[in-house]
Specification:
single chain, alpha/beta, Isoleucyl-tRNA Synthetase, Domain 1, six-stranded parallel sheet, four-stranded antiparallel sheet, 19 helices, 16 strands
Length: about 525
Amino acid sequence: MDAKCNPYFISTAIPYVNGRPHIGHAMELALTDALARSHRLWGDDVWFQTGADENSLKNVLAAEREGIAVRDLVNRNSGEFQTLADRLDSSYDGFLRTSVEPRHAAGVTRLWRACAQNGDIYKSGYRGLYCVGCEQFYTEGELADGLCPEHLSPPEVVEEENHFFRLSRYADQLHELIVNDRLCIEPLSRKNETLRFIAGGLHDLSISRSQARAHGWGIPTPDDPGQVIYVWFDALANYITALDYAEDGPRYRRFWQENPRRVHVVGKGILRFHAVYWPAFLLSAGLPLPTTILVHGYLTVEGQKISKSLGNTVDPSELVQTYGADAVRYYLLRHTSVAEDSDFGRNRLVHAYNSELADQLGNLLNRTVAMADRYCDGAIPAPAEPTAADRGLASLADGLGARVREAMERFAPAEALAAIWEVIAAANKYVVEVAPWTLARARDAGDQAAGERLATTLYHLIETLRLVAVFCQPFMPQAAARLAAQLGLDTNASGQSRRWGGCRPGARVAPGPALFPKG
């Protein structure tokens, strides 16, 4: 990408790898990838970062339960998360594993030293209630009937000497940044939740663990070999260590230090880490903050929270194998909410596949290409003077790019896809109303006007589908390429014009298999 293009950084959170990925991880990957692809479509120079959080006590305990080495567990499970990202056709630029990347350990150490140099790290004894699942301490007032509010399990009492970060020093500054949207938290409900958390009082944060409690796993604390760095201080730093912050590399300068758009996509359960702790670390170190934190809700399964104990986990890789990456991405982006919790059901995925992807988009492509092949010897015809019906379809399709872009700038992929499907519905209605097969019979009987009308109709259908292919790319990249190929266009649909009139009369369509075949 040309360096003159505007830089844009976007990241997923990096998940713990104590278990296999579930459908919630797929949702976050699909959402982040759609945003990254959208910005590339608009000409931005995008860096999409993801990875795996490996330096966690959760991973250590999971390995012990399996009776295997921690290294073996994180190698295996991190591989499954990266495989899921690949199967979902995620266009990530970097996948960082925190336990194996030397640049990550070096960057975390540099960040620690910067905070320490600013006087924000000190050592003190501590006794508190710790949830291993969250990897965080809770006060008694934060518990729900004595249980962790996230995992509904009792925390353990931990007493030891740790290094602390002076989080309390940054309460006022964080409040002002968030109120003024210099640190923008979306949606508004999560912004208000963060402000309430800050207003309740920020306490200094323990940012190291004893080697004994960490079982010797983690990045050593600088100048204190008896401690390892707290997993969240370690993990949050991945957003800049992946860009080579340790060496102040050109990628770090372009995509973080000098970039006006730095976006994190995270789940609601880790809001405080990203909206309070991480910005405070960066303020202490004198580094730029993220500009936007997009917080999504959880996925439930048939009305219940995803839980191994309930046996309701959904394997996203199996879904991709069964229905294809594009269908899974489409369902997660159109039929789940970014702001709120959403419920996943396989039956709803199947319904969306059949009724929306196969019957509406797939059928429109199939009959349009078939008619061009049958009535125009496979060539895209040149249009004649358009009618009001033609102009109506052209106007709707021509405005699609602006509608998709506006929705994605508001982090609303469901609305972007609804706009695309409005065009698809209009095109299907147009086919029924114009009835090209009737025009073909009249043309073959010698009606020249019917022949011109047929050519204009097919051109408008093909051009509409071309624009659908262009703007489906962020959501269903493989289907967009196959759609473009059947229309006889460059399979890299982004290389085509994003405005009406990009079809070249005379180019040949290429009938192919069903875009979304039914079982």
